[in-house]
């Protein structure tokens, strides 16, 4: 056993460029001794949930399933904003209860188990129901999934801050995304291969069942993390405490500017569906496109995540800035090509390539902002930052989610240009943020 632990530590040191004494910035000595084991437990569990996210992605797989069961288009249009904002909106109030827990890994375990149940429920519904009833039941499962996801979001960042030192967190996220990207690539190739056959709802339901199982396995792995008791101050009236924490926006200028920047950087997440809409308009809705888009995202993660992660440990605000500029530049180029080079509109390669570049940019935005907010504060302050940030972003997501409905009235190209402009503003705002490393 000791030899195994030694090998684990050596692998940890290799991945994090440790030479002599292990660096444990911002965590105590007791937690430092457990860092190598915790590092890989977090990596594996989050690798599994990342693959599960891809295989139940509302922009691709869930849309495919709801179409197969003939759910109303109106309900299909709600699944992306519900999944994203539903996990963020309750966090301001959930954080109050999480603060009372000296050990918070079990909050993540509970959230992961509930996500397993919710996604498995979608698979069962797809096999058993059709039409409007199926659509509403899937929406209900998705709401439950999103609320459970909110539990994991707060708990993960807090456990990460307690168990993994500064200067190692960005690389951990980067390696997680990279390994997940390899698995996603394999899944995309499998879907691309199966698209040659006349696949039905059973295939997509079994895909969902497999995705749900990944959350169950991840919960079992995450439960083995060695987390020592932490601060539990602030366990007062939830509503009152929530409003008090909102005062951070007024009192804490760096945090307020981060919220503004993060809101503008939503462009990287919101642009993706419009590239898919363009592909469907100019190329078609053949099933093989699903595999191509999944492969594009997987390759983007493999290539970019470790690079963004290392850059984030040096300057997470620069990562956000560069990624936002890449998102904005890509959007303007794609719209320009479609408008002024008509011969490229019906080229199949254009849209997966665009999604590939956007995937690289979005990885940078995600790794940059997550590393930045974890490094901004210690202890319960970190929990407050995450809760307030995610709740406000959830509200903003619901507002901007209306863009999907407006896309039928405003051209898709115009929406992409507007999001690109927001990305440019976000890049400028991000460059003015203070360094926190």
TrEMBL record:
Keywords: Membrane, Sugar transport, Transmembrane, Transmembrane helix, Transport
Domain of life: Bacteria
Keyword Membrane appears in the UniProt entry: yes
Pfam families for this protein: MFS_1
Keyword hit for Metal-binding: no
InterPro entries: MFS (IPR011701), MFS_trans_sf (IPR036259), Sugar_transport-like (IPR052528)
Transmembrane segments: 61-82, 106-127, 133-152, 172-191, 203-223, 255-276, 288-308, 320-342, 348-365, 385-403, 409-428
GO molecular function, one term: transmembrane transporter activity
PANTHER family on file: INTEGRAL MEMBRANE TRANSPORT PROTEIN-RELATED, MAJOR FACILITATOR SUPERFAMILY (MFS) PROFILE DOMAIN-CONTAINING PROTEIN
Protein name as annotated: MFS transporter
Organism annotation: Leeuwenhoekiella palythoae
